[in-house]
Amino acid sequence: MKIALITENSQAAKNGIIHTALTAVAEPLGHEVFNYGMYSAEDKASLTYVMNGLLTGILLNSGAADFVVTGCGTGMGSMLACNAMPGVFCGLVIDPTDAFLFAQINDGNAISMPYAKGFGWAAELNLQDVYSKLFDGERGLGYPKERAEIMARNRGILKQLKSVTCNDMLTVLQSVDQDLLKSAIAGERFKDYFFANAKDQAIADYIRTVV
User: Fold this and answer.
1) Do 96 and 110 contact (CB within 8 A), yes or no?
2) For the chain, how are helix, strand and coil distributed in percent, rounded to 5?
3) What is the pLDDT of residues 66-113, one digit of tens each?
4) Residue-wise DSSP of the chain
5) CB of 61 within 8 A of CB of 207?
6) Beta 90-92 vs 67-72: how paired, if at all?
7) Does the pTM exceed 0.90?
8) Element holding 175 (H helix, E strand)
9) Is 122 left (phi over 0), alpha (psi -120 to 50) or beta?
């Protein structure tokens, strides 16, 4: 699985901590991690939580990533922005229990975490425990197990509902403020990671016209 990490500007100084915790868990499990930044608070390309959502939509809908780990100060802004995108199902995850339940019940493709609120002593251990619950083992098995069937059915209904209420990603890219789009994909490693991994040719072609 290709996992993308996106860090919002107010928490950019913590990118290294988050990336280290994520790779420590994900890579031994056979997953690849792509750090889309921000890498530091001094980065020229600055990502707001709204841009986090737009970039998440681009990566997941193009197939450049299978899962996105993002967040902001409280985690809520990035979660809302992510869930505004077609095909993105993002959960607010604070602790390992949240991660386990989200993985088993909702089986979404993105999480948003608070990197300011409650991010104190041993925060890096909480991150590793969260990622372990997310990425180790089979997802979507349901919890409790006797409700697995109805949970899977509800996930399908939600996906169908979102496909009706949201435009497709290419339409979003063509319609969104183009300056916002340019800012969201301005990261120094975006082009290297994105074009090497994107599977949707139409989305990739449109992004080429922007970058």
Assistant:
1) no
2) 55, 10, 35
3) 999 999 999 999 999 999 999 999 999 999 999 999 999 999 999 999
4) -EEEE---GGGGGGHHHHHHHHHHHHGGGT-EEEE-S--STT-SS---HHHHHHHHHHHHHHTS-SEEEEEESSSHHHHHHHHTSTT--EEE--SHHHHHHIIIII--SEEEEESSTT--TTHHHHHHHHHHHHHSS-S---SSGGGHHHHHHHHHHHHHHHHHHS--HHHHHHHS-HHHHHHHT--TTHHHHHHHH---HHHHHHHHHH-
5) no
6) unpaired
7) yes
8) helix 169-175
9) left
Tokens of 47: 């990502």
pLDDT (tens digit per residue) in 23-64: 999 999 999 999 999 999 999 999 999 999 999 999 999 999
Nearest to 55, CA basis, from 74, 41, 39, 35: 35
Tokens of 54: 């737009």
What six digits make up the tokens of 59?
Answer: 């990566």
